[in-house]
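Reviewer 2 asked us to include a model.

Predict the structure of this chain.
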Amino acid sequence: MHLPLDSNDLAAIWLTLELASLTTLVLLLLGTPLAWWLAHTRSRLKGPISAVIALPLVLPPTVLGFYLLVALGPNGPIGALTEQLGLGTLAFSFSGLVIGSVCYSLPFVVQPIQNAFEAIGRRPLEVAATLGASPLDRFFTVALPLAGPGIITASVLGFAHTLGEFGVVLMIGGNIPEQTRVVSVQIFNHVEAMDYASAHWLSGGVLVCSFLILLLLNRRGHWRVMPGSGQ
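Predicted model (structure tokens):
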């Protein structure tokens, strides 16, 4: 059976997988220490920072995408800096897509890991300290292994959430073939062209992939560490 997908569709699929993988990696590197800090700090900044992280949960994606476009554009603070450094502007580039995706999926990674760290409690860390473990040792040998389920959930949710992005990636990346045109944008293109067969194949693929991801999380019993679920 011939699939009604052309080279542009395949390029969009590959670009989306690349974007989701890189975004998830960046989110884990940035989100894990941030979640650790949020789980243990008593700073007054915890509330405002937590609110900023959670903004993508309630903010329309186009609003977030618009302000990122302004910031990364040639007249924005970040865009002006990258221009002076000879890097050009990040808007309408794959790098811009990564930045936008990281901002948009941040709560789906930080909150599950934070909940997992909070669920550990202080007792295991205190026991490790009495055995002579340094703070860094306690983090890598005690906290991270015990928070493993939350980190797995965060990774899967971050990846899945990035797969379905539309508003943010369209605003900041546009619709450039093989550079910023991801699957969600390609589906939109097919619908505009009334090519419903190709739109069905791409949409169905995303639907099945998302369902399997959620089914996997459900079977592993990781729903308790999803954003906003608490402990």
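Confidence is low (pLDDT under 50) at residues 223-231. The two ends are 48 Å apart (CA to CA). We have added this to the supplementary material.
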